[in-house]
Amino acid sequence: MSKKKTATIIATGKRKTSIARATLKPGKGVIRINSMLLDVYQPEFAKMKIFEPLILSEGEYKNVDIKVNVRGGGFLSQAEATRVAISKALVEWKKELKQKFLDHDRTLLVSDIRRTEPQKPYRSAARGKRQKSKR
Question: pTM value?
Fold first, then answer.
């Protein structure tokens, strides 16, 4: 085993206001998100989104332990940030996965840069204006 395979890999992922930090170490395939095992993570849809890069890695994740800390945003935003962080960590662990991830879905490795538009002064929303009536 080379020296690089024993090192700890840290990768980050972002989506909206969620930021996820994944730490990957050699291990037995244990995946934890905010100290919770992925097997019991809820809701199910978010769990399946997070599991996508693990399925594409064809069992490579069974040789490593992944610990993810994620903060901010809603549950789906956190799931997508976690997905990006895990994908980046796996690619750094095994370079051959990069092209497979890009061919499947580019958003596995590239964070979505879209953000909400800020509110304008004296308005209740970013775009909404007070309605006028023509009399």
Answer: 0.85
